[in-house]
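Consider the tokenized backbone below.
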């Protein structure tokens, strides 16, 4: 069994960002639960917007745009082994939470009050695949890990606006035409392309791919095919490719390292 912490090679703490599509929010909160179950202090937040978390994802939500207040709230927890979510605003009509500018996340990290700050840095409107627009993703300069996601549940299904967020950008980056079946090479291209999912990532940040929603053998094999394509291309900065399902135990089914 491989834990998320082991699979993503998370050791000493840092700012971890989640980009792409197909389960970012679920992965972020599951990882937060895993990290805080030990001795680590974990803050979850966003530089965009996220769905209102369920109580089993984040029991405590702090609504504040003041750095000092967030740090003060952290002081009310035990010295180690806690987790809460902080955001700037509740968007009640959307049942979402609005986050912070990336510079604010940098300031929170500089306080050294948290072992980990986990940041959803990209939106995908609940779709399983995406390609970023020019203003995306929104990654703090302090980020040490960038986790890029794609959902394997749309593999082999028609490429359209129901499965892919920003389909016109995805088509341009991957060469896949609308209506064609989503294939391994197209999903791989969304990670490999310089303007793809890892667009704008700090050069010093390690990049990891999580191919999520591998619920059936066909999807697992698709993930392995994608991993082989990415591994052959060996794009700079990508360290490891994980195949799994955030909703399963264990969440990681297979992994491929890139030399």
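A designed sequence for it:
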């Amino acid at each position: 069994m491989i834990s998320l912490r082991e699979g993503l090679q998370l050791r000493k703490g840092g700012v971890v960002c989640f980009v792409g599509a197909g389960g970012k929010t679920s992965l972020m909160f599951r990882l937060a639960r895993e990290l805080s179950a030990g001795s680590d202090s974990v803050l979850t937040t966003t530089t965009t917007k996220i769905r209102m978390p369920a109580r089993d994802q984040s029991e405590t939500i702090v609504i504040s745009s003041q750095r000092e207040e967030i740090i003060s709230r952290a002081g009310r927890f035990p010295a180690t082994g806690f987790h809460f979510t902080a955001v700037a605003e509740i968007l009640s009509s959307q049942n979402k939470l609005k986050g912070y500018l990336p510079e604010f996340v940098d300031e929170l990290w500089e306080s050294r009050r948290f072992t980990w700050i986990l940041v959803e840095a990209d939106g995908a409107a609940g779709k399983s695949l995406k390609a970023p627009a020019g203003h995306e993703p929104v990654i703090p300069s302090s980020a040490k890990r960038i986790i890029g996601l794609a959902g394997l549940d749309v593999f082999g299904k028609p490429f359209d606006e129901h499965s892919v967020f920003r389909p016109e950008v995805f088509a341009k980056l991957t060469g896949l035409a609308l209506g064609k079946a989503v294939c391994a090479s197209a999903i791989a291209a969304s990670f490999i392309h310089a303007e793809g999912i890892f667009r704008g990532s700090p050069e010093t940040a390690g990049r990891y791919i999580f191919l999520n929603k591998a619920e059936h053998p066909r999807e697992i094999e698709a993930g392995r095919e994608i991993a082989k394509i990415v591994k052959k291309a060996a794009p700079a900065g990508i360290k490891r490719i994980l195949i799994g399902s955030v909703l399963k135990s264990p969440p990681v089914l297979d992994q491929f390292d890139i030399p």
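The chain has seven helices and 14 strands.
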